[in-house]
User: Fold these one by one.
Assistant:
Number 1:
Amino acid sequence: MAKRDYYEVLGVSRGASADEIKRAFRKLAAKYHPDANPGDKGAEERFKEINEAYQVLSDPEKRGRYDQFGHAGADGGFGAPGEADFGFGGFGNGFGDIFDMFFGAAGGQSARRNGPERGPDLRYDLTVTLEEVATGTEKEVRVVREEICSRCHGNQAEPGTRIETCPDCRGRGQVERISDSFLGRIRRIETCPRCRGTGRIIPHACKACAGHGVVRAEKKLTVKVPPGVDESTRLRVQGEGAAGRRGGAPGDLIVFIHVAPHSRFRREGDDLWMELSIGFAQAALGAEIVVVGLAGEDQTVHIPGGTETGTVFRIARAGLPRLGSSARGNLNVRVAVAVPSHLTPKEREVLRMWAQMRGEPVLPEDKSILRKMKDALGR
């Protein structure tokens, strides 16, 4: 069977750099390595082809001969195809380290599970009112979490019984696997299947926690909420998360703040906004109107004559405090001029006179019997 083009085998162009060729080889070698495909003859043959291509294209001299003379030139450089070493020097002087990187070092870097392990952080969603944002508050919360078992104190064994060192890994939590292939000896480090990486064997598990070392329990906590929090605030309560394992520290409780909507105020950053309805005469002639702030305090809004709907009046430092600062936002009062829907005969008469004085045309007065009856009733 005719050999495929080496560049095609590695999936690179003829102008590929040495680094591009190396990256392509490593990717394909990891995919088709015989240890990763036990019993797959097709993968084994593909792996041989990939190695052969790489040995030629990674050597500048061999690559030059291959580019000039094709497979004939390359074959003359490292022996006929089918020989035992395939030009790799028996994989004994450095080449096998590449496969240790793929299949040995990766396993050796697996985290050992017999050392202290910090507990996971927990999330708690807490809703506060706008008034509580303004002043700060303390909230009692209930958290369900894993805590250290009080019976075995986290060592997972029934009190009075022994914990044995795993005989397979001798307490290391990892075992070494060595296999032989046509490539040479392959070394891999794996998690010990007997102790599952803990390095320990527990013949008699704790009855209270079933050998887990932790139990689920509910705890009441007091969370201090500072003034000025908002929806982006995250409060960290150290050490109040889930319990650690094998003597590890507990995680933290992360409190996500939510602010409840308010019936009168709307928040924009540190500023508060509110709507104020004023009468036609107040808008036209001006007035001073007292509004109640978020904390129940009186705030006076000066309305100058000729104020239109949508005008905003700002009361400095009457908004919310800024988190972690002495700064404070403003209270913004947006006015809306209210138009009365019901007028007494006297009110209509005055308005008609006002419209006449300003030359503003209005609808003629309704003289129907129904209107006369409403006037008589003062409606």
Note: The chain is about 25% helix and 25% strand.
Number 2:
Amino acid sequence: MVDNSSHYFARGNTAHGAHFLYNSAFDGLNKIFVLTGPQGTGKSTVIRSLADGLLDQGQHVQCFHSPLRPDELDGIILTELKVGIIDGRVCEGIAEDEAGEIVLIHFGEALDNGLISPEHSGTIEELRGKLDRAYSKAYETFLTALRIHDEWEKYYIESMDFTKAGLVAEDLIQDLYAGHESDTPTVGRHLFFGAATPKGAFDFIQSLTAQLDRRIFIKGRPGSGKSTLLKKLATSAEQKGIDVQVFHCGFDPNSLDMLIFPQLRTAIFDSTAPHEYFPDRVGDEILDMYTLTMAPGTDEAYAAEIASIKERYSAKMKEATSLLAEAEVIDSQIKAYNVAATDFSIVEGLQLQLQSELNEMIGSLQFTK
């Protein structure tokens, strides 16, 4: 059975802080419902419930997951309707003057602040400060890890044959795009396929590529040109009018980790840790940038230096992950206070209001077909 849902992230906890891609991910929609209110007022639960109901009705739903709790949803898009629903606390980057109609749904109305004692209010404020500090420390630690990663890359960059790397890109552009060009340039859609979470790296590569005919697994080392190759391919696709989904690295959003070409039914992605996969079906192939572009013996020549860097990098990544886990615990504590003071009958009413409007849209869409 074909899965009628697609799963992404559009925000991430990165070495450059909290990073949002919602402006691109939600571009082109006719309407966006923004659910406002603090954590614990039922927004994610309602979004999940609506998603499940829409899937049961045969609608294709794009699901955008929380990097703090990947089992929870930040938002969804109803693909056919071109309608989005999103938690207002996480949709930074969506500009009202550029998006379609934006409708605010105020879940904060369900929160009875009178049920939160002055003592608990003070505790919540203290927890919010702790949450901000935990996130800040996590981002600082990720940035330290990125600087260590830069040291790692340096050994391979110095050993790289850039002429060969350029030829690899040119060959791929010809292989992938020949016969599919258009006179109208496109603009890529920018997303994350994974995220740094309190439990470590998490990704949706397998589900996102499951229905594609061709998957190119890029292997290599840090600094062996994987992201640069993907950037060249993305730029060329846009210039040649080929639709492309551009997936940024959840650790360093300035780097790219995957491209999907829906019309070509093809994906090409960085298949190294922490999202390392191997071919397991017809249509899968490996592109090894290390063997294609690096001076032989580079690994062996710098083995001791690289081992030391890998150890320091791993330690910093573990430290940053533990800080995200700390942030998740604090966020849960704040959430618990709000849950206890929320009237969920009001939340249910807001959900029914949303569901009714969506059903009306679906009915109108089916009538026009």
Note: Residues 186 and 242 are 6 Å apart (CA to CA).
Number 3:
Amino acid sequence: MNYEPSDRWGILYCPRNGIKSKRKRWARLQKELDQRGVKYDFVQSESMESVDRLVRMLIHNGYKTIVIVGGDSALNDAVNCLMQEERQVRDEVALGVIPNGAINDFARFWGFEANDDEQTVEWLAQRRIRKVDVGCLRYTNKKGEQCHRYFLNCVNIGLIADIMNLRRQTRHVLWSRTLSFVSSLLLMLFHRHDYKMRIRVNSDTIDRSVMNVCIGSALGYGQTPSAVPYNGMLDVSVIYSPKLIQLFAGLWLLLTGRILNHSSVHPYRTRELVVDEAHKAFVGVDGRLIDTPVGPYRIQIGQEELNFLIPA
């Protein structure tokens, strides 16, 4: 029996480790897919740029189910590619994820676990679709160009993005995700922990030193635990610079999902946030660092923009 692309999954595999690990991971997934009779075609990315090209290829070749085997950053690349298509094209495509990244926060929101391929494939095979919101960061880059970047999970301004930058720099030297993450945290002890910001959210204007701002459509790495990606709203956690003992208390509340109880965290819910100033603060979108915006920038939410495969 012949299967058209519209009847098959287009699977984009975004590996994260060495060659041996790539083969083992794909072998496990292939076993689960074959056992459930899933018809699929498989492509593998080698870089961020190749994700965009390969997702576009799958769309234009008629695949209606596109599954990303990767983390938040790879999923973000796929979303940004899909959002460049006309609404009519997007409405015909369902995007799914099999968590395989350093950070899988959006997958975790839905209950997909990186170590449970059997359950994940079973859920995806049932093709239950939900429309999800897509956030958008609009900014001007250093060349004076008007840019935008879409996101499913969150935008971080300040400390979290700064850690991403340090982690990227240390990886060039250490070539290890774990070592680079630990060394980044150690370096942060000697790094600045606050940034002069001016932010407009709803009727409030925040004009003071801030440690981090998380704008989340989903979990936001624990900083926006009440956010859901289908209500057309963004949850915002503005974290002022706490004292050292408060910082450790905040880390504990973050790990236990109660960060909003911390006295230094000020929550908001909005459809739009404007950053008039964020002096020398890095910006991260779904775990990926972007070029630092020049001048004011705006973060908005679009309701029910994409089809996403969720658990049955």
Note: Residues 170-182 have pLDDT under 50 and may be disordered.
